[in-house]
Structure formats: C-alpha cells, structure tokens
C-alpha cells in the first residue's frame, strides 16, 4: 500500500475554515507493519500492546495519516480529533432573512450540532469516505475489468475507510454500475462474468452510512466516443441546477422544472446524428432519513424530487423543509427519456411492512428473513452481500420473500430505445438552518 496525498479541502468549507480537521502526515515507510499511533484512543488498544510496539520502534510518532492505495486507512486514523470536513456550504437563494448570520438560526444549528443524534460528523465522515473511494475508482476503473472486480474495489474501500461495524457504519446500498441504456440499479450478481467494454458509458452510484446517515452520490464515466461527454455535461449541469434551486420552503415541482429546463437545453452529436438530451421522466431524487434511502419513516412516505415538470399532481404542494436530507440526482437520455424495469434483479430491501417474524410455510424463507433483518435491517442489499454474510442457496427463499411482498425487488432501470445512452450525476445535500451543505461535493463533481 502506497501512501498518497489526502485531497485538499480548501474549497469545501466556508464557515468552518478555522476548525479545519487535522490531517496528519504519513510516517516514512520503514518496512514495518505497524499502524499504532501516539495518543491512539482506539478502544482495545491496550497498554501492553502499546509498549511492545513502542519498543519495536521507539521514535515512532504519528502513524499514517494519509490515505493508502488502494484505500484501506480508516478515516478515524486520518481525522484524529473526530472532526470531518464539511461539504460545500452554499447560501440559500433568496435568503432575505439572512439565515447565515441570523442569531436565531445559528443558535438552532449549535443545538443541532451538540445533539449527538443529529451531529453532522456522521454525514460528513460518510461524505469524505465517498470522496476518497471514488477518487481511487476514477483513477483505476478501466475497460477490460470484470464488473465484480469494480464493485469489489469500491466496496472494499468503503468498508475499510468507514470502519464498517454492524449497523454503526458501512455500505449504504449496493454499488450501481449501470452501463449505456441501463440508467440505474444494475450491480453484478454472484457468477456474473460481465466485463466493462471500450465504448461503454457507466453510472457509478454508491452509498456510505455512518450511524444511519447515508451519503448517496453518483457520477458517470465515459469510455466511449468523446462526443458523449456533452451528455455527461448536460446531466452534471442539470444536477447542479437542482442543488442550486433546492432550499427550505422550496416546492419540489419547481426543482423538477428547473432541472428539465437545463437538461433539455442540450443536444449531443455522435457519428453525424444529433440527439436531444431528455430528462428521464420516471426517475427522480428523494429525501433520505436515518437508515432509509428513500426517506420514508414508518407509515410516512419520503419525498420525491422530480426531474421533469409535473402535470397537475399533488407533488406541487410538497416543499423541502429545514433539517431534511435530499439526494439530488438527475438522469439524461438520448433515447425515449423514460425507463422500464428490465433484466435480472440484483437490488433488494426489506419492505417496511415486513413482519417481525416469518409466519409463512417456507422454512428457508424464515431463516433468510432473519438473516436479512440481522445483517441489513432497512438498508438495501444485493445478492453478493447475502454471500458476503455467508448465505448459500438463498435464491428460492429470496424469491419467496419477494412474492410475499416481505422483500421488495428493485430491477435494473433501462431506457427501452435501442442504442439509447444514459448518464447520471447525484449529490446528497443537507438543509441546515443557516445554509445548504452539499455533503458529497468534491473537486471532481
Ligand atoms: C432503492 C434501492 C436501492 C432508491 C434511488 C437511488 C440509487 O430509484 C424514491 C425515489 C438503492 C437505492 C434506492 F437498492 N432509489 N438512488 N441511488 N438508487 S429509487 C427511488 O428506488 S425511491 C427514487
Ligand atoms: Mn444513488
Ligand atoms: Mn439516490
């Protein structure tokens, strides 16, 4: 593992420049396998062990404190004071009450920060994991790789950096690696031999959570005709428009209308054919709640963030509210501009109506349901994750739970027009009392 520089955070924080997190330098490579650290407060780092390590290398000061390649250094070892970098902090549009300076809003935010259940450190750590893992992915994903190896690259990095620990921290949802006309919700199933090819346009959509606070962010890689870059640019612009429009008391329909306007102002010319870029009308962003990727809590459904103008639905009365988290994601297509469910399913999640215990007639379904509850709770999972926790021959039981509406299936979402190309960009934002924080913003997108 080779140490590399941690990405600079200069541009990310407006208000928190003064309390920039400590990023300690990596010790020099001395050939010793020693990750102990002076002042290490890791529970279980016992005195005996410490002394032994101190003897072995008496002058050892700070251990590591930059990220390795591949990324395997847990972030608590890089940000030793437990303070993670804030995302991009943006002033609200039309902020006539000047929330950023309002004493009332600053006090409200101070209280929110001090409340352990709402501490922003959780979402910020998840955001920093996302940035570091994707930086490695963007450098190393190449045509010819197996999709499973790409997924492993991202998931192994996420597990290590977030310091995966039961329900306290881990993967937020399956790694989406959707190619070309597939817009979302493809990840390889066990045994899938699919390879990333030259010519492919791949959406990389992965999630990280810390104490249930999920960062959901995605980007698109173009290994095809450089002319597709215009499609990527359209979608990036549309997503940034959604982020810019988002705010407290903003109507969700207005966000959708602004996104579509920008998205559909683009066209792409590839091989002498001109395609108008369309917003994929039946895909949307969504609110996010603790351990709930679609933002639903109990009987209360989450909120959708449309990416096209809505026609006379009830969505036009819904507004964004202070304290809410949203995934702002947009999808552009050169095809029909809508998606169908198509192909083998990989993504699943426990239904919110799932019974506490299985009362049906299939013994294998009963034990699989117990395993899903224990390992994933309400977080989405994929078949590979079932194998990761040791499940074998689970497919019949899984299909039974889907048929009985105990587990929901999320099949791949595909633009049905032959040759359609799709792209996606997504960020997670937090509507703080004083400002909007784009927690997944990086120097890449
Ligand atoms: C569902 C299942 C998963 C949430 C959006 C999404 C990836 O399309 C309300 C609005 C993972 C995520 C989801 F395994 N979906 N974001 N990133 N997928 S969604 C949705 O089902 S629910 C959109
Ligand atoms: Mn996503
Ligand atoms: Mn999402």
UniProtKB/TrEMBL annotation:
Catalytic activity: Release of N-terminal amino acids, preferentially methionine, from peptides and arylamides
Compositional bias segments (type: Acidic residues): 24-41
Coiled coil: none
Cofactor binding note: Binds 2 divalent metal cations per subunit. Has a high-affinity and a low affinity metal-binding site. The true nature of the physiological cofactor is under debate. The enzyme is active with cobalt, zinc, manganese or divalent iron ions. Most likely, methionine aminopeptidases function as mononuclear Fe(2+)-metalloproteases under physiological conditions, and the catalytically relevant metal-binding site has been assigned to the histidine-containing high-affinity site.
A Gene Ontology term for the protein's cellular component: cytoplasm
Binding site for a divalent metal cation 1: 205, 216, 426
Region ranges (Disordered): 1-73
PROSITE patterns: MAP_2 (PS01202)
Pfam families, alphabetized: Peptidase_M24
Protein EC: 3.4.11.18
Basic residues: compositionally biased ranges: 49-62
Entry-linked Gene3D superfamilies: Creatinase/methionine aminopeptidase superfamily (3.90.230.10), Winged helix-like DNA-binding domain superfamily/Winged helix DNA-binding domain (1.10.10.10)
Cofactor: Fe(2+); Co(2+); Zn(2+); Mn(2+)
Membrane-spanning intervals of the chain: none
SUPFAM superfamilies in the cross-refs: Creatinase/aminopeptidase, Winged helix' DNA-binding domain
Family of the protein in this entry: Belongs to the peptidase M24A family. Methionine aminopeptidase eukaryotic type 2 subfamily.
Protein name according to UniProt: Methionine aminopeptidase 2
Organism: Kwoniella dejecticola CBS 10117
């Amino acid at each position: 593992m080779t140490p590399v520089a941690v990405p600079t955070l200069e541009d990310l924080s407006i208000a928190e420049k003064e309390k920039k997190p400590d990023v300690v330098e990596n010790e020099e490579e001395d050939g010793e396998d020693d990750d102990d650290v002076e002042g290490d407060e890791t529970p279980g780092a016992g005195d005996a062990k410490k002394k032994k390590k101190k003897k072995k290398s008496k002058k050892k000061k700070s251990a590591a404190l930059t990220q390795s390649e591949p990324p395997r250094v847990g972030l608590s070892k890089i940000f030793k004071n437990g303070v993670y970098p804030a995302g991009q902090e943006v002033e609200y549009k039309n902020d006539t009450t000047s929330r950023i300076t309002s004493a009332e809003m600053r006090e409200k935010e101070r209280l929110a920060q001090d409340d352990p259940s709402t501490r922003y450190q959780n979402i910020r750590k998840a955001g920093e994991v996302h940035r570091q893992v994707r930086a490695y992915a963007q450098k190393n994903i190449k045509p010819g790789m197996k999709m499973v190896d790409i997924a492993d690259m991202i998931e192994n990095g996420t597990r290590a950096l977030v310091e995966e620990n039961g329900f306290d921290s881990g993967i937020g949802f399956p790694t989406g690696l959707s190619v070309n006309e597939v817009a979302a919700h493809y990840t390889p199933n066990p045994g899938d031999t699919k390879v990333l090819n030259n010519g492919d346009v791949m959406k990389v959509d992965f999630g990280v959570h810390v104490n249930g606070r999920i960062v959901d962010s995605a980007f698109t890689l173009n290994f095809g005709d450089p002319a597709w870059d215009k499609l990527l640019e359209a979608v990036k612009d549309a997503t940034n428009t959604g982020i810019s429009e988002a705010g407290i008391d903003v109507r969700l329909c207005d966000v959708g209308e602004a996104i579509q306007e920008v998205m559909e102002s683009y066209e792409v010319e590839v091989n002498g054919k001109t395609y108008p870029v369309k917003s994929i009308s039946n895909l949307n962003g969504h609110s996010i709640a603790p351990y709930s990727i679609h933002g639903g809590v109990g009987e209360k459904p989450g909120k959708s963030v449309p990416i096209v103008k809505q026609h006379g639905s009830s969505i036009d009365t819904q507004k964004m509210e202070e304290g809410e988290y949203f995934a702002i994601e947009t999808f552009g297509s050169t095809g029909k501009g809508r998606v169908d469910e198509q192909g083998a399913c990989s993504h699943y999640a426990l239904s919110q109506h799932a019974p506490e215990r299985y009362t049906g007639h299939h013994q294998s379904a009963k034990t699989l349901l117990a395993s899903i509850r224990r390992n994933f709770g309400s977080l989405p999972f994929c078949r590979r994750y079932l194998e990761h926790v040791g499940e074998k021959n689970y497919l019949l039981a899984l299909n039974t739970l889907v048929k009985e509406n105990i587990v929901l299936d999320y099949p791949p979402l595909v633009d049905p027009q032959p040759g359609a190309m799709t792209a996606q960009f997504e960020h997670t934002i937090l509507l703080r009392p004083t400002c909007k924080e784009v927690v997944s913003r990086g120097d890449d997108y």
